[in-house]
Amino acid sequence: MMEQGPSSQPPPQMMTTPVAVVGQQFCAPYVVMLTVTKKAISLTDGDFVVSDVNGEVLMKVQGRFFSLRDRRVLCDAAGTPIISMKEKILSMHSRWNVFRGDSSDPNDLIFTVKKSHIFQFKTELDVFLAGNMAEQSCDFKIKASWLDRDCTFYLGNTDNIIALMSRQYTVKNVILGKDTFGITVYPNVDYAFVVAIIVILDEIHREESED
């Protein structure tokens, strides 16, 4: 069973308007509990596998073996691309652009993610939807301690939480070299969007660790 977020967090609140970033089909009128399993290396299933509470695979992230270093692709269970994530080279804020399907066409841009500050002790990300070209105020904010796999998603610069992530420990995962964490996506919030942010968070942390 997936772990709930920290007990100090408020209970999930129903969003009056669906937060559909990638697509309405990824919004559910109830809390969506997901398990994300990160594998050290995989030539078949991908680096990340996303499953529901019944263990059914919903999404996979195309394995690094098949991807360019600065590009990741989130696919459905059948392998059809949902979104592609591309890092902007030589960006001081670790900027990532996210596009529909397998595209990298600016016309297919959905949202952009970047670090809130160049130097930060704990990871903070700002997310800007494609229509927010001025980027004066973020549409979503993520605050994370990636080493602890603890992450909170907020609606803009507010205290309104839309999703949580926490690490799951099992003996089996430790033995198999898997990193597993649970995601609690609040009602009417796009869970494909949340998964995409987690993949980008992992990429940013990996790059910082290599520096």
Describe this structure in words.
This protein has helices at 171-176, 191-210, and strands at residues 32-39, 48-51, 57-61, 71-76, 81-87, 96-100, 109-115, 123-129, 140-145, 150-155, 161-168, 178-185. It has 211 residues and is mostly beta strands. It has a 12-stranded antiparallel β-barrel with strand order 1-2-3-4-5-6-7-8-9-10-11-12. β9 and β10 form a beta hairpin. The longest helix is centred in the last third of the chain and has 20 residues, at 191-210. The protein is globular.
Task: List the SSEs and their pairings.
Blueprint: E1 32-39, E2 48-51, E3 57-61, E4 71-76, E5 81-87, E6 96-100, E7 109-115, E8 123-129, E9 140-145, E10 150-155, E11 161-168, H1 171-176, E12 178-185, H2 191-210
Antiparallel strand pairs: 1-2, 1-12, 2-3, 3-4, 4-5, 5-6, 6-7, 7-8, 8-9, 9-10, 10-11, 11-12
Distinctive features:
disordered N terminus; 12 strands; 12-stranded antiparallel beta barrel; 2 helices; globular; mainly beta; 211 residues
β-strand amount: 35-45%
Instruction: State the strand order across the main sheet.
Output: 1-2-3-4-5-6-7-8-9-10-11-12
Report the structural category: mainly beta
How many strand elements? 12
Which spans have pLDDT < 50 for at least 5 consecutive residues? 1-8
Q: What is the overall shape?
A: globular
**Helix count?**
2
Distance between the termini: 36 Å
- Cα gyration radius (Å): 16 Å
Please bin the fraction of helical residues. Answer: 10-25%
The string of secondary-structure elements, in order, is EEEEEEEEEEEHEH
On the 0 to 100 scale, the average pLDDT is 82
Can you summarize the main beta sheet? 12 strands, antiparallel, barrel
